[in-house]
Design a protein that fits this description.
Elements: H1 16-30, E1 34-45, E2 51-56, E3 61-66, E4 83-93, E5 98-108, H2 111-127, E6 145-150, H3 155-167, E7 171-176, H4 184-197, E8 204-209, H5 223-231, E9 236-240, H6 248-252, E10 255-256, H7 260-267, H8 271-305, H9 310-376, H10 378-383, H11 399-404
Parallel strand pairs: 3-5, 6-7, 6-8, 8-9, 9-10
Antiparallel strand pairs: 1-2, 1-4, 2-3, 4-5
Helix pairs in contact: 3-7, 4-5
Length: 416
């Protein structure tokens, strides 16, 4: 009996890597260049700069990725819910066994989609109060320094500089930025924030761009630009596009100019008009001062007629002064005599009082000494009954006799 091999043994065996590689080649050969219409969903910007999202319609979803730098030529940025036509290639991602689209370019499906997105964003930002008129700041009447955010190569910058030079020459700082395409919105917002962070910032900002389509002006509709304009501490004029063009930065700025040239005219006065105005005010002020001075002189003359003769007013005073001048020596002498008498009387009274106190004290001392002498006198001893012996002639004995004999005071007996 012959045993036939199983039919499964004729099917080749592939590794996972081989299958993934073959599928990748098949998909890329079949869809090497495709354009897909769909709505952006699940938008995610990675820190590496790559952007991941999905394109969906009512029945299906395709994962998509846009590598960093590949969308630099696109007029608008990728936004959640935006319907676009994406151009790129289909490929597979073996790590997750799925296919995806690498988007190299994209375009909105029409202005209707952009306008819808614009209105939704406008309503959301307005609800936050970013367009509130209360937030708007007045423009400085005479700015000394103006900051301009625009492209350095366009005619817009030259138009603004020429108009400023003609009207009101002042110091100008230019922050060059892209005004359309990928990255333009970030540069514009960074310029506005950068001017506000300068240690000596400008007095006024102008954000300007020439006219263009809705896609060309889309950078000025980006949320990052609108928020930067609304948070600017420096008064800001938006001058984007022509008079009929309107972007969201116009609502967030402090003033909107229909054109960049009009922004320069709005920012500064006309120097010659200002000079004429000052000259007119100076002439009017001089005329008013002359008229006022003449009126005051007339008033003074009229008032002076009612004044009395000054000589007659002082005649009596002058005569009274002469009389007092004659009486002054006599009065002064009398006054001095009075003071001398008062001083002498005061000194005499003081001297008497002092002398009395001195003599009273001396008398008391004298009586004290006399009392002591009295108590120490031999007479007090004799009064107690003693006797005093002397020589026959009543004198004291001589020293020799005193030396040879003792003399005593003898106490006499009391009388019978």
């Amino acid at each position: 009996m012959t045993v036939l091999d199983s039919p499964l043994q004729e099917v080749p065996v592939y590794s996972v890597t081989e299958i993934s590689h073959n599928l990748k080649q098949m998909v890329e050969r079949a869809y090497g260049r495709v354009r897909v219409r769909g709505e952006i969903s699940g938008l995610k910007r990675h820190t590496s700069g790559h952007t991941y999202f999905a394109l969906k319609d009512t029945d299906a979803v395709i994962d998509a990725v846009s590598w960093r730098g590949s969308l630099s030529g696109n007029p608008v940025a990728l936004e959640e819910g935006l319907e676009i036509i994406a151009t790129g290639r289909l490929t597979t991602y073996p790590g997750r066994s799925k296919y995806q689209m690498v988007v190299e370019q994209f375009e909105p499906t029409g202005q209707g989609a952009l306008l819808k997105l614009l209105e939704e964003r406008k309503a959301r930002l307005a609800a936050e109060g970013l367009f509130d008129p209360v937030r708007k700041k007045p423009l400085p009447p005479y700015p000394q320094k103006i900051g301009i955010v625009t492209s350095p190569t366009g005619a817009v910058l030259q138009d603004i500089l020429h108009r400023l030079e003609d009207r009101y020459p002042c110091h100008v700082l230019v922050w060059p930025v892209l005004v359309q395409g990928q990255g333009a919105a970030d540069q514009i917002a960074a310029a506005i924030n950068g001017f506000n962070k300068l240690p000596n910032p400008p007095d006024l900002l102008i954000v300007a761009r020439g006219g263009g389509s809705l896609e060309d002006l889309w950078a000025f509709n980006e949320e990052v630009v609108v928020r930067a304009a609304a948070s600017s501490q420096i008064p800001l004029i938006s001058a984007v596009g022509h008079e009929t063009d309107t972007t969201l930065i116009d609502y967030a700025s402090d003033r909107r100019a229909p054109t960049p040239t009009a922004a320069a005219e709005m920012a500064v006065p006309v120097l010659m008009d200002l000079w004429s105005f000052l000259q007119d005010r100076q002439q009017r002020l001089t005329t008013i001062m002359v008229q006022d001075l003449a009126m005051r002189q007339t008033t003074l003359k009229v008032a002076s007629r009612g004044l009395p003769d000054l000589t007659r007013l002082v005649e009596d005073k002058m005569q009274r002064l002469d009389e007092w001048a004659e009486r002054l020596p006599t009065l002064l002498r009398h006054y001095i005599q009075t003071l001398d008498h008062q001083l002498t009387s005061a000194l005499t009274q003081k001297f008497r009082h002092s002398a009395r106190r001195y003599f009273d004290g001396t008398h008391q001392q004298f009586e004290l000494v006399a009392s002591r002498l009295t108590h120490a006198s031999y007479q007090r001893i004799l009064d107690r009954g003693f006797c005093w012996t002397t020589t026959a002639d009543g004198t004291w004995p001589s020293p020799s006799i005193m030396g040879m004999a003792r003399f005593r005071l003898w106490r006499l007996p009391p009388p019978l």
